[in-house]
Amino acid sequence: MSLQNRTLRAGTYLGLAVLAGATLFPLLWVTSIALMRAPEAAAGTPSLWPHHPTLVNVINIISRQHLGRYFFNSLVVAIATMALSMLVAGSAGYGLARVEFRGRRMVSWLVMLGVLIPNQALVLPLFEMFRTVHLVNHYAALVLPAAANPVGIVLVQAYMRAIPADILDAARIDGASEWRIYRSIVVPLMAPMLAAVGVLIFVVSWNDFMWPMIAMQQESMQTLPVALAAIDREHYQDIGLMAAGATMTMLPMVFVFLASQRYYLRSVIAGSLTD
Amino acid sequence: MAALEIEHVEKTLRSGQSVLRDVSFTARDGELLAVVGPSGCGKSTLLRLVAGLDSITAGVIRIGGRTVNEVPPQQRDVAMVFQNHALYPHMTVYENLAFGLRVRGTPRTQIDRRVRQTAAQLGLEAMLKRYPRELSGGQRQRTALGRAMLRNPALFLLDEPLSSLDVPLRAELRRELAALHRSLGTTMVYVTHDQSEALSLGQRMVVLAGGRVQQIDTPINVYHRPANRFVAGFVGWPPMNFLTAESFDDGARVPAGASGLEYGVRPESFSTQAGGPDDLQLAGRIERIESQGSECHIELTQRFGRVLARLRCEKLPRVGEQIRLWVRRSDLHAFDRTNGQRVELMGLERSGPRPEERTQ
To answer: Cβ contact (<8 Å) for B74 and A169?
Structure first.
């Protein structure tokens, strides 16, 4: 490696390290505050490191604020949304990319349109719909509207278009039924993109605030972000407690990302690898 | 094993564009039939129609005597090798080979035996655990061939299987393919845009252009008796020269048909010496000499155009000098000016084989 290359590489890593630090710093600081006792956390500017680490905030928020219940709600909704939307995006994206049928272009176009409409604009009609079918305060109210995520469909569709149609034809000639082709060829080929879509949907669902706040009026059905906002209004002076809630809200996301990172990254770099 | 019969097949796209018009030919049982034509002539479409991947607009396709017009690809008992190999990228070579048998519910032990047997035949034993991305171009092509062979189909369809490989490898695989065909004895339809590949590989060849069959015959007959001006110019390299009677020294001596003939002379038909009293002569100035090692390509200009001749390199005049060339009258091809069809020049012995189709 030439000196110039080495310098370039060192510079790149330095830049990346700075960016990573900037991203991680607030997360680590919040986690650190969550482990502080009240006086330490309440200091004008909390220190960066807990001098007497304690789990009292975590225990308090779980036992006194029913955080476990909200956590459970969020988890159920996010996992169900992720699973269902992967199913929908996988089949719809494949169908729109590789199955010939009348009106395919029209459907593609409508899905695209769905990407452009802001969710806030849908809140009112959605609420009316779910009230009519008596699904307000029900997990389905959060899962169903998010299941057919147009972004996921568009991503899978674009990804499938890049896969040569000859591979599917080869399987047809090999004697595989359409269902078998979907199961043995299509799903494994789009797995990286599906994983990426899954992570994306999980994060969006987990962080969603407005619609869960409206659709889940019963307190026991609320999701973490909504509940956390309520706790904040009540206990805004207890910084340690809030930090504990925030930490518990972001932890699952870190795990989801780490677990799926292998597939996620593969789909992101797939475009640069021919073959 | 089975013959492939194609009768009056038409394919018109939804846009109204006609891709194949009244195409009829037969690939005999066990034959290696080459389908050749310039890009866009409809040859790949034809293969997809035979495989059942696209539907025909009119006509009949029969495989082994069974009409398959409405039969889906899964049940046509054909195997296809694609131009880009179309290997399953997420499967190892072993799984790629085994997929067709697995889908058909073949017992595991039998699959294993047949996969290993085919892999051995193609020299792929050491590659079985590799993924397609870890293979060289030739290994990928062999895997694609193996996948097709394993199912022991009634008919092999090969769509430009060698075009993505480099030249030496292409020649090597061409030999292997011919040997493979001899040992398997399965009917093969081999589509290519490379006329030299069709000439060397096909037992018979179908020349396709503009969605129509131009000629069906043995390579030797197609070469020596091209059915029309298109085939004459397309098959053979360097391509045939097209001349008028005036190009020759004594235009009146050129065998005349009805008025309006165009004459074709293959570059290798020229000679620098008269072979007999009946030979035709033409002269021109040498524009360019291109050595091919054993022989030279000489481009000369005349008042009536350019002529390319293939000659031995010895004792040639230099560039810029005049040269005189002789052609045997029997090496002259004639084509009708209005429709391009071949015109037999009466009373002349041909140097090539007889018109009757050669049987193998």
So the answer is: no
pLDDT at A134 over 60: yes
Task: Please give, rounded to a whole number of angstroms, the shortest distance from the CA of B78 to a CA of chain A.
Answer: 7
Say whether residue A270 is in contact with chain B using an 8 A CB cutoff. no
Q: Which amino acid type is present at position A125?
A: P
Neighbours of B255 (CB within 10 A): 18
d(CA B143, CA B126): 12
Buried b (16+ CB within 10 A) or exposed e, A223-249: bbbbbbeebeeebeebbbbbbbbbbbb
The architecture of the domain spanning A65-236+247-273 is Orthogonal Bundle (1.10)
Q: What percent of chain B has pLDDT over 90?
A: 70
Return the pLDDT at B294.
85
| Nearest chain B Cα distance for residue A165, angstroms | 9
Per-residue pLDDT at B207? 96
Rounded Cα distance between A97 and B56, Å, is: 23
Asked if the Cβ–Cβ distance from B104 to A175 is below 8 Å, we say yes
The pLDDT of B307-329, averaged and rounded, is 90
Q: Which two tokens stand for residue A190?
A: 């789009």
pLDDT of residue B355: 46
CA distance A89 to chain B (A): 21
Alpha-carbon A271 to chain mean position: 22
Instruction: Classify burial at A254, counting beta carbons within 10 Å of its beta carbon; exposed 0-12, middle 13-18, buried 19 or more.
Output: exposed
Contact B89 A167 (CB under 8 A): yes
Which DSSP string corresponds to A204-236? HHHH--HHHHHH--SGGG--HHHHHHHHHHH-T
Which residues of chain A are in CATH 1.10.3720.10 domains?
A: 65-236+247-273
Q: Mean per-residue pLDDT for B136-149?
A: 92
ipTM: 0.86
Flag whether residue A178 sits within 8 Å of chain B, measured between CB atoms: no
From edge to edge, which strands make up the β-sheet containing B187-192?
B78-81, B155-159, B187-192, B32-36, B204-209, B212-217
Judged against a pLDDT cut of 70, whether residue B346 lies above it is answered with no
